[in-house]
Amino acid sequence: MAKFFYAVRVGKNPGIYETWGQCEAQVKGYKGAKYKKFKSYEEALDFLKGEQASQCTDEGHLAKIEELKDNEIIAYVDGSYSLESGTYSYGVVLLTKNKKDTFSGRDNNKNLAEMRNVSGELKGAMVAMEKSLELNKDTLYLHYDYAGIEEWATGAWKTNKEGTKEYKRFYDSIRNKLKVVFIKVKAHSGIKYNEEADKLAKEAILQ
């Protein structure tokens, strides 16, 4: 029997579901629901990442290094997942006026790994926030390509899994210390540092 993945971009709880029943529960009766069936998880994830009204598709919408103040920092984050090993990974690029730092890593927490790539995306965002605070910055321009990075943090999406609950708890614990400006970018669109974060995540999953 063929296995499908159902991506809910707009619904009660946006995300990726493995049965039509689970998907239907999120979109039935929801005005303006957007969802689609895919043969692979990766295609479903691309559907969730793409076509966001707020996403940036060119360099003109991005935070600019030369315009940063001393208290500000820029980050690009991305995540990856290995079906073979059941591990997820993250990549982070941090930029200040005078320096670029990169961070990456992988993990196999079973409670988080069920969200696949998304686990890496969330971990990358948390690392970016942690490092920003360690550098005594109070404003972070966080560039991301998966909508949940912003939507779960701000409460626009309901946190119904342990991984998303943990992410929301973390964000709530630092929000009074660090102002996070969320900037949505289009995945795989040639944006330099977003591509670098993606590469870091993919390299980390192989380690």
What does this molecule look like?
The protein contains seven helices and eight strands, in the order ββαβαβββααβααβα. The protein has 207 residues and is of the alpha/beta class. The chain has a five-stranded mixed beta sheet. A three-stranded antiparallel beta sheet has the order 2-1-3, sandwiched between helices. Strand 1 (5-10) and strand 2 (15-17) form a beta hairpin. Helix 4 (117-134) runs parallel beside helix 6 (162-174). The chain is globular. Mean pLDDT is 85; it is low at 51-58.
- Total strand count, please? 8
Total helices: the number is: 7
For the CA atoms, what is the radius of gyration? 17 Å
- Major sheet characteristics: 5 strands, mixed
What spatial form do the alpha-carbon principal axes imply?
Answer: globular
The sequence of SSEs as H and E is EEHEHEEEHHEHHEH
Low-confidence stretches: 51-58
What's the mean pLDDT score?
85
Family: Belongs to the RNase H family.
Keywords: Endonuclease, Hydrolase, Magnesium, Metal-binding, Nuclease
InterPro entries: Ribosomal_bL9/RNase_H1_N, RNase_H, RNase_H1_N, RNase_H1_N_sf, RNaseH-like_sf, RNaseH_domain, RNaseH_sf
Function: Endonuclease that specifically degrades the RNA of RNA-DNA hybrids.
